[in-house]
Amino acid sequence: MSKRKNKKNNTLKVSTLAANTTKLAKKPPLQTVESNKYEVDYFRLYESLYRKEISDWQQARIARHDPFNPLTYPLQQLYKDAMLDNHLAGAIENRILRVVNKQFIIKNPDGKPDFERTQLIRTRWFRTLIRRALESKFYGYSLIFIQEASQGNIAKIIDVPRENVIPEKGIILKNGLDPSGESIKIADYPYHLVYIQLADAIGKLEQVAPLTIFKRHSWAAWDEFEQIFGVPLRIARTMIDTPKHKADLQLWLETMGLAGYIILDKRVDIDIKENNRSDAFNVFAQKISLINKEISKAILGQTMTMDDGGSYSQAEIHLQTLDDITNADITDVEDWFNNYFITILRGWGYDLPEGYWLDIVANASVNPAEKIKVDEALMRNGWNLDKDYIEQTYEVKLDADNPRNNQPQALNYNKKTELDFFV
After folding, report:
1. What does the pLDDT look like over 245-255, one tens digit per residue?
2. Which of 11, 205, 233, 292 has the most crowded Cβ, counting Cβ within 10 A?
3. What does the alpha-carbon distance between residue 58 and residue 61 come to, in Å, rounded to a whole number?
């Protein structure tokens, strides 16, 4: 961060905690060229794209669980390979979206929403941060580098490659394959390096990754089976034993495609052998289906929200199980924000006084017409509606300085009266 005068970027007051710009200006030495910016590419390694096998998974686990010099690079590379599986990627995305798509509201110590302060976190970088927090449950951890920020305004965050992070030691390795090499301590830069770990530091993908390897084997075997038995075998029998005739016969067999035809000598016979087994594919299909169900159980706790089958009552039970997992994810994110990350925001000048906290709530699904009926019933029974509530609920702006009627007359409604607001 440069030493220029920090600019106020929001309408709220700047926290006095962030006045110590010297403390905040201490950035990790990540730069690789002469520049006033710090590049995370300093840690980047080449991605390993070769096909992973069970032996790779075993070796990666041995390196990761080393009690003295744990290495995260092999296992994280294995996780990236596992995430190429569509079913696994979809299950994890399903679980993440069930939290990310909720409403994130800042509330005061009394539990009332503070919509002005809530606007401070309704940004793209914050949604990315929440996504990385949830990903830590599967990868083990996430590390974010706050690259561009000023007083009261975080502008840009960057992911630090998980392959270079050693959670047990709290360090970032310059070379992810050299645990004893050059490194920096995460704790030395508390306002720039944000470490996130909502579960254990190994991650859920450790138990799921081998399933994707077995599944890939089945796809490969099925493809080979299709090539051998899926297309009928063409057999040519001939009594003409000349090189030219054999070459012509081979060309005929190779060019027998759609609507193909051949003119042959009467001494040449061509036979097509079809595969009489129609259910051989079930060996591969059933294995792939079972692996998909195991992946769903590991990530979502059940199968029916992603797979077919079962009755409506069973589906409700499976959905309730997923809701329980989602509620646990929400609680973990709230605890991490309220106990840890809110302190970092205050350090950057965000006006979030002590006692303010984050609440993640479901999006309202009440029809506006039904909502009006409920509010109308409350007013008929003598309750006044708060101005802020009306503006936030119906997205309207009320003119408090020039109201049409400060004392509205009581309306006489009977049981058959219906609002025609949306008619």
Report:
1. 778 777 877 77
2. 205
3. 5
Instruction: Give Cβ neighbours of residue 267 (< 8 Å, ≥ 6 apart).
Output: 238, 239, 240
| Of 197, 194, 195, the residue nearest 146 (C-alpha) | 194
Nearest to 309 by CA among 293, 330, 332: 293
Task: Please state, as a whole number, how many other Cβ atoms lie within 10 Å of the Cβ of residue 351.
Answer: 18
Say how many residues make up the chain: 423
Please state, in angstroms and rounded to a whole number, the distance separating the CA atoms of residues 306 and 170: 37
The number of angstroms, rounded, from the C-alpha of 3 to the middle of its chain's C-alpha atoms is 37
* pLDDT tens-digit map of 164-177: 999 999 999 988 88
Amino acid at 3: K
Distance (Å, whole) CA 9 – CA 155: 11
Nearest to 235 by CA among 274, 188, 193, 183: 274
The one-letter amino acid code at 350 reads: Y
DSSP for 317-362 reads HHHHHHHHHHHHHHHHHHHHIIIIIHHHHHHTT----TT-EEEEEP
Is residue 74 within 8 A of residue 56, CB to CB? The reply is: yes
Q: In one letter, which amino acid is 60?
A: A
Are 137 and 145 a contacting pair, CB within 8 Å? no
- Pick from 76, 100, 199, 195: nearest CA to 146: 195
Residue 168 phi, psi (nearest 5): -60, -30
Residues whose CB falls within 8 Å of the CB of residue 91, separated by 6 or more in sequence, listed in order: 295, 296, 299, 300, 306
**Two tokens at 218?**
């089945």
SS (HEC) of 152-210: CEEEEEEECCHHHEECCCCEEECCCCCCCCCEEEHHHCCCCEEEECCCCCCCCHHHHHH
Among 23-32, 242-251, 340-349, name the one with the lowest average pLDDT. 23-32
* Measured distance CA(354)–CA(258) in Å, rounded: 76
- Res 157 pLDDT > 50: yes
Distance from C-alpha of 352 to C-alpha of 251, rounded to nearest angstrom: 79
Residue with tokens 């300085």: 401
